[in-house]
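Summary: Need help interpreting a holo structure output

Steps to reproduce:
1. Submit the protein chain below together with the SMILES for adenosine-5'-triphosphate.
2. Request a joint structure prediction with the ligand placed.
3. Inspect the C-alpha cell block that comes back.

Expected: a single structure record containing both the chain and the bound molecule.
Actual: see attached output.

Input attached:
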Amino acid sequence: MTAVLITGTPGTGKTTASKIAVKKLKSSLVAVNDLVNDENLYNGHDPEKGYKVVDLDALSRMIGITLEDSNDDHLIIEGHLAHTFKNDDLVDIVIVLRARPDILRKRLNKRGWSDSKVQENLEAEALDICTFEAVEIHGDKVNELDTSDIDVKEVADLVVEIINGKKHFPPGNLNFLEDLYG
Ligand SMILES: Nc1ncnc2c1ncn2[C@@H]1O[C@H](COP(=O)(O)OP(=O)(O)OP(=O)(O)O)[C@@H](O)[C@H]1O
Ligand SMILES: [Mg+2]
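--- attached output ---
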C-alpha cells in the first residue's frame, strides 16, 4: 500500500485536488476534518480564537489505525494537519500544496473569515510552516507543489505523477515572503 499525506495551508486546494486524484488512481480518500469530527478528536477550546483545538496525539493514533486497516493500493489522507502524523514508518509520500499569498487571500476572503484569521493563514503560508513541520517529521518524503498558476486538474495530474514516482518536487524552492511583505 502507498500511503500519501496531502497537506498545506487552508485554501491551497487539498480537498479539490485530492478528490480528482483519487478518481484517477482508483484509490481511497480520507479527510482529516472528517476523522476529527466523526471521532471527536478535540482537546478543548481556544478562548481567543473561538474554535476547538484538535488533539494531535489522538489524530495521529487515528491516522495510524486508518492506514493499518486499509486494503487499498493507495490511500490519500488530506487535511492541513495530515503531515502531523507522527509514525513516519507508515508513510510513503507527503505532498505540501502551496499557493502565493495574493491568490490565497482571494480564496480565503470568499469564506467570510475574519481579517485576522485570513492574515494568520497568509503568514503561515509565507513562512512555509506546513513544509517546515512536514520535513521535520517526514524528511525527504516531502514534496512541495506550487499551485499558484495551475488549475485544479493540473494539480491533480501532478499529484498522481508524484504518487506514481514519476515526479518529485523537493521542498525549499519557493519564497512567498516578498509576496506578503514586499
Ligand atoms: N489550483 C487552483 N486553481 C484555482 N482555484 C483553486 C485551485 N485549487 C483550489 N481552488 C479553489 O480554492 C478553494 C479552496 O479549495 P479547497 O477547499 O480544496 O482547499 P483546502 O486546501 O482543502 O482547504 P481547507 O484546508 O480549508 O480544507 C475552492 O473554491 C477551490 O475551488
Ligand atoms: Mg479541505
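--- end attachment ---

Reviewer comment: The chain has one domain: 2-181. The mean pLDDT is 96.
Status: needs-info
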